[in-house]
Amino acid sequence: MSKIVDLNKKIPFHLERVKGYGWVYNQQLDGLNRVLSGSLSTSRNLLLLSVSTRHQRLASLALHNAGNSERAFVHLQQMHYLGIKGLKRELLSDGQTVNVKVLEDTLMLSMQEKEPLLSSGDWFMYFWSALLHEQFQDLEYLASIKEAPFRWIDDSIRLYSDILCGVFKLQDINVQESIQAFVDASEFDKVSPESYDHAAHIKLPTLDVLLKLFGGADQNSYRQVMYKAALAHNKFWKQKRLDGKVNGDISLPLSALARLAYANFGYTLGFECDYIPEYFYKSEASELSFELMQPLPNFTNPYL
């Protein structure tokens, strides 16, 4: 029997030191706005996946430095939109185009001259952001491009994508067999130490939450497994070797599952967690905004 955890004990946060430095967000936002404004005249050179990553970074800064979860959520919406458009552009054939809206203009982008270089990390990031933002058609799209030239670091990572597609019925996959295959392929002597570490602290705890939800767990059971997954998330991302990596600043998988739990069952976390903001799973769905984002008030760069 698993140990009952105390939900009143706050989840540690590895970026506690950045809180209150909202001026950093405003500074970085100004840089992005300059890029987006300039892209309207040089659209052929617009790197959608790169801009998507900048929105991910700004989401972290808005949430943790400036304490503004609503603004952070808007950045994650933009991150997802531009990321999916970026994947589609990477996979264009000669003569094909993809339309993408930047600010108030719609750009028609053609294929890029270089060979596509797609990361499995991108696939997972946009899978979870599609779930978070309830863009279910994008889940279907991501399932449909799994055979594209993504760089799957090892077999275990590819098998984990099979599990997700099977659980959400995006592909006809035997989930139990895929889970066992994933566990076997993730053994310490079969993958890199980094991949093993990620499986133990991120993939498996997230999978536990997913299976609890789809298995009909009550709210108390759900809260217990979410709390343990959030603790594991902190344990992984607080490592010195991951300093500066933005991916762990917000837990997209756990935030997405929290939204799923709240929308379908009314479940709440029942504990505080910087990695899973309450606003992310309780807010109403909203239309994507393409207006130029303004700096947040009351944050002044002390070095100017």
Quick overview of this protein structure:
With 304 residues, the protein is mainly alpha-helical. The chain has helices spanning 22-39, 48-65, 69-90, 120-132, 136-144, 155-167, 175-185, 193-214, 219-237, 252-265, 278-282, and strands at residues 97-102, 105-110, 118-119, 150-151. It has eleven helices and four strands; from the N terminus they run αααβββααβαααααα.
Mind explaining what this structure looks like?
The protein has eleven helices and four strands; from the N terminus they run αααβββααβαααααα. By secondary structure, it is mainly alpha-helical. It has two domains: 14-116; 117-274. The strands form two sheets. It has a two-stranded antiparallel sheet. A hairpin with a 2-residue loop joins strand 1 (97-102) and strand 2. Helix 8 packs parallel to helix 10 (252-265). It is globular, with a radius of gyration of 20 Å. The termini are far apart. The mean pLDDT is 93.
- Tally of individual helices: 11
| Multimeric state | single chain
Which range does the strand content fall in?
Answer: 5-15%
Straight-line N-to-C gap: 57 Å
Mean pLDDT: 93
Uncertain ranges:
none
Structural class: mainly alpha
Tally of domains: 2
Task: Please give the number of β-strands.
Answer: 4
- Globally, the shape reads globular
Helix content: 40-55%
Gyration radius, to the nearest Å?
Answer: 20 Å
Biggest sheet record:
2 strands, antiparallel
Order of helices and strands: HHHEEEHHEHHHHHH
- Give the strand order of the largest sheet, numbering strands 1, 2, ... along the chain: 1-2
